[in-house]
Amino acid sequence: MTLLDADGLAKSFGQVVTARSVSFHVAAGEALGIVGPNGAGKSTLLNLITGALPVDAGRIGFDGADITRAPAAHRTAMGIGRTFQIPRPFEGMTVFENALVGSTFGAGLRRRAADAQAWEALETAGLTHVANAPAGSLRLLDRKRLELARALATRPRLLLLDEIAGGLTEHELPALISTVAAIRDGGTGVIWIEHIVHALLQVVDRLMCLAQGDVVATGDPREVMASDAVASVYLGSPDLEGETP
Ligand SMILES: Nc1ncnc2c1ncn2[C@@H]1O[C@H](COP(=O)(O)OP(=O)(O)OP(=O)(O)O)[C@@H](O)[C@H]1O
């Protein structure tokens, strides 16, 4: 079942084209990876899906409804959750309280249901051991996990991950990869933007490569990474880590 259906999305900032006519779809329980050089338009695409930015043209369908013009809060309530590239938790609040913001204002839950959802999100993200610590005291791995927990607390049916593995050590990656795979296997649709391609390839079912607002290649992850089109996009680029296209 198609969960997200993006058709002909276009977005420019002045002369900078971040999406020319980008189309893709994601099903429930499916993970789509997105790669592309810096400035390709990857994060902007997530902003179009969440409604943080309006599209210039194109249509976004979610669960059969046209959400192209729907406000961001409405999209969150419908089940679109995201993490941000740079974690910005409420530093003075505890880890649990940060998740509670997601379950209360994102998922619209109250009291015990909100508490339970926030706790479940911390469990999935592996953060219960620091539930009462101030978010500002967390090291990078746990800040990334909190970013994930905050998104999970909104009860997403489609989870958008923006470089959730960025900055982590090779030692820290496997647990995060397993967590994302388990979320996908639980039936959530996932879109994962990541420069650490070997991490991405362990989870995603399909891969899309963007460059300057165009879809360069899409399909089987290893075939996409091996394609001449993707190799030429990355020629001489240091953006991809751990994988030679
Ligand atoms: N709000 C904005 N106003 C003007 N230009 C923007 C805005 N947001 C993004 N851009 C520009 O759009 C282009 C695409 O940016 P985007 O962040 O989507 O790329 P990206 O593929 O996510 O890059 P990275 O891998 O470095 O995160 C860049 O040139 C960026 O400077």
UniProtKB/TrEMBL annotation:
User: Mind listing the GO molecular function terms for this protein?
Assistant: ATP binding; ATP hydrolysis activity; L-isoleucine transmembrane transporter activity; L-phenylalanine transmembrane transporter activity; L-valine transmembrane transporter activity
Q: Does the keyword Cell inner membrane apply?
A: no
Q: Name one Pfam family in it.
A: ABC_tran
Q: Which residues form the ABC transporter domain?
A: 4-237
Biological processes, Gene Ontology terms: D-alanine transmembrane transport; L-alanine transport; L-isoleucine import across plasma membrane; L-valine import across plasma membrane
Sorted alphabetically, the keyword list is: ATP-binding, Nucleotide-binding, Transport
Gene Ontology cellular component terms for the protein in this record: plasma membrane
Q: Extract the PANTHER family matched here.
A: AMINO ACID ABC TRANSPORTER ATP-BINDING PROTEIN (PTHR45772:SF7), CONSERVED COMPONENT OF ABC TRANSPORTER FOR NATURAL AMINO ACIDS-RELATED (PTHR45772)
Kindly provide the name given to this protein in its UniProt entry.
Amino acid/amide ABC transporter ATP-binding protein 1 (HAAT family)
Q: Where does this protein come from, organism-wise? A: Nocardioides albertanoniae
Organism placement in taxonomy: Bacteria, Bacillati, Actinomycetota, Actinomycetes, Propionibacteriales
